[in-house]
Specification:
With 129 residues, this protein is an alpha/beta fold. The protein is 35% helix and 22% strand. The chain contains 5 helices and 5 strands. It has a 5-stranded parallel beta sheet with strand order 3-2-1-4-5. The radius of gyration is 14 Å and the shape is globular. 29% of the residues are buried. The structure holds [cytidine-5'-phosphate] glycerylphosphoric acid ester (C2G).
Amino acid sequence: MKKVITYGTFDLFHIGHLNILKRAKELGDYLVVAVSSDSFNAIKGKKCAIPDYERMAIVEAIKYVDEVIPENSWDQKINDVKDHDIDIFVMGDDWTGKFDYLKEYCEVVYLPRTEGISTTKLKEDLKLK
Ligand code: C2G
């Protein structure tokens, strides 16, 4: 069984998030998604509209997702890959190169982002209404 992992905040869940989860799952048989906790997002300098337990519940309900774990720090990825026997690590290509250190432990794949949509854009558009 080929296991895939990806990480994200998944705030205001949108088609860009769905696309990457769908395509990540297509690379294997089992998809683990690490969802950033509110405390970790504070470290990332991201203010979420939706609290972490709701973001996790939404991601967990996506049919491509087999397991959801919390992301609490930048440096948990190596342990996650080992603990979950991960074969492929996937991220959107806005992260290209940033996680190449994981190549020692698993395949690293950066997939093209979905154009024209982002949580930031959604927040700006909503503010304008
Ligand atoms: N994404 C995408 N297309 C978009 C928006 C996002 O493919 N239009 C992808 C991102 O590249 C990322 C995933 O969706 O792979 C989640 O995006 P975010 O929720 O913005 O996650 P981020 O803040 O990038 O957190 O340790 C890694 C971090 O947790 C990543």
